[in-house]
Structure to design on (518 residues):
């Protein structure tokens, strides 16, 4: 795997030097599908370099929460702030919040990295093509330069030798590392991971977690939905427990795992451990 | 009467049939291109957020799929000029009438194929593209379209072959395509066997050439590193899967 850093020195410097306060903040986020209230007022903030692990049973709204933070879905209530600025919506003339149009949202999404449970690599592009496309299409980096950046990033996640392979020719662990590289070259302010290792064979989990650990070490701000208790305990600065669309418990990992306060959390931890 | 090889070869190499080929091909290609463009719009309409637009798309497919193509052609050629006086002049040539009739018909079928193609693209693909910050047009052009094209090539190729054969219905509007020319020659020579055979041979050759083209196109959309290093680029490179534009 990677010797040295995954992120560029200047990116790391920027990560440490950004404005004080929360990098990303959820304020009373609500989201429902029809009559199904999936998020019922979720609030939390993440400071620079913090890693938040989110645990919770299936269907508790973890993926929906990340999609809302990534501005992929409109909110039914609440706000998302990025570096202290409200994103995803603006104040309408009547004072109510109205969602921004897709084009405006697109520009804001570019600063938020998202990694999906099922990788969602583009099957018609090589590993290099997948990592380049955000640079050329969104950041408007000239192709030759984008290729160099993408190449270096693939190298750092340990996939330099796979740059010309297509997703169908890569293992799950390799695909997920390409997906992480695809998000990282955009120089996001925060990385959101939605169960990044849940779709992987057990022997491939480690290679993805190692990349994420290294990112955390270099100061990347991260929100990680995961069932990997070991990762949450060793890497996260804060662990949240979600249930039925709400955060029912949070705390630093040693406390959270040693003495969970909620009965629901205890039962969940017993089930996954 | 028996099969006269000499007359058959004469028919095969006749100026009349040779001149019908470009008419048939340009009619098929023009109708196909226009049909696919209308079909794409209809398919997008059918997956619109707005219910009224979805119904309009559905109605188009329902309506034009129900009408026999030859009735459509007769209607465009004979009835439409009565309804639209602007079309009554000599400028409204058989070729235009045939293109209108065949393309609105083709669009109904293309719309269904493209809709299937759009549905086949996993929603995670659009989500990943949007999460990167791509605008809607880029999401469609760089992520959705290549994947749709790959799945629609076989049914679309099939559809094109059907359309190629449907061009002989332009006989109904006296367009000088393969069948019309053949009928004219038979009226003069009374050699049914040789002339119909010659016409059939032309279609077999056209469809065969096209089938080779289809295989070539399908190879462009095999997304593996081996297939990529084997193909030396070309016009579909950026679309079929190359890295840069
Ligand atoms: N796009 C959607 N449309 C309708 N219901 C959805 C959608 N996405 C998620 N849900 C519902 O929201 C609830 C929470 O889902 P999800 O956020 O995926 O939970 P988790 O990731 O914690 O398993 C589930 O009941 C699910 O069925
Ligand atoms: Mg989930």
């Amino acid at each position: 795997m990677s010797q040295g850093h995954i992120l560029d020195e200047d990116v790391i410097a920027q990560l440490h030097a950004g404005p004080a306060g929360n990098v990303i903040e959820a304020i009373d986020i609500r989201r429902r599908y029809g009559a199904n209230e999936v998020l019922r007022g979720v609030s939390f903030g993440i400071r620079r370099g913090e890693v938040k692990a989110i645990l919770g049973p299936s269907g508790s709204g973890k993926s929906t929460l990340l999609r809302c933070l990534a501005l992929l879905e409109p909110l039914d209530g609440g706000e998302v702030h990025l570096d202290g600025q409200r994103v995803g919506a603006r104040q309408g003339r009547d004072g109510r919040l109205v969602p921004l149009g897709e084009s405006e949202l697109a520009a804001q999404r570019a600063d938020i990295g998202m990694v999906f449970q099922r990788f969602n690599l583009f099957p018609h592009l090589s590993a290099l093509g997948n990592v380049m496309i955000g640079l050329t299409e969104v950041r408007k980096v000239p192709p030759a330069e984008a290729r160099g950046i993408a190449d270096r990033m693939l190298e750092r996640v340990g996939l330099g030798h796979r740059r010309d392979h297509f997703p169908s020719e890569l293992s799950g662990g390799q695909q997920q590392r390409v997906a992480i590289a695809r998000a990282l070259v955009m120089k996001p302010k925060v990385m959101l991971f939605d169960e990044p290792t849940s779709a992987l064979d057990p022997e491939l989990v480690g290679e993805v977690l190692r990349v994420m650990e290294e990112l955390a070490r270099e100061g990347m701000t991260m929100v990680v939905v995961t069932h990997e208790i070991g990762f949450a305990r060793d890497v996260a600065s804060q662990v949240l427990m979600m249930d039925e669309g709400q955060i029912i418990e949070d705390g630093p990992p040693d406390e959270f795992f040693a003495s969970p306060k909620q009965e629901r959390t205890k039962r969940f931890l017993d089930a996954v451990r | 009467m028996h099969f006269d090889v000499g007359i058959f070869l004469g028919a095969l190499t006749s100026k009349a049939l040779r001149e019908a080929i470009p008419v048939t091909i340009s009619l098929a290609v023009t109708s196909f291109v226009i049909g696919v463009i209308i079909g794409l719009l209809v398919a997008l309409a059918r997956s619109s957020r707005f219910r009224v637009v979805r119904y309009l798309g559905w109605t188009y497919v329902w309506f034009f799929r129900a009408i026999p193509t030859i009735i459509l052609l007769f209607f465009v050629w004979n009835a439409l000029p009565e309804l639209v006086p602007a079309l009554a002049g000599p400028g409204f040539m058989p070729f235009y009438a045939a293109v209108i009739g065949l393309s609105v018909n083709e669009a109904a079928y293309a719309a269904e194929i493209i809709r299937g193609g759009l549905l086949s693209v996993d929603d995670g693909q659009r989500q990943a593209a949007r999460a990167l910050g791509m605008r809607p047009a880029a999401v469609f052009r760089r992520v959705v379209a290549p994947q749709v094209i790959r799945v629609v090539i076989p049914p679309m190729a099939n559809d094109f072959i059907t359309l190629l054969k449907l061009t002989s219905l332009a006989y109904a509007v006296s367009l000088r395509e393969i069948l019309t020319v053949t009928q004219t020659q038979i009226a003069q020579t009374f050699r049914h066997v040789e002339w119909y055979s010659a016409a059939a041979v032309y279609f077999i050759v056209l469809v065969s050439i096209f089938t080779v083209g289809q295989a070539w196109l399908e190879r462009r959309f095999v997304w593996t590193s081996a297939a990529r290093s084997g193909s030396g680029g070309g016009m579909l490179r950026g679309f079929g899967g190359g890295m840069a534009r």
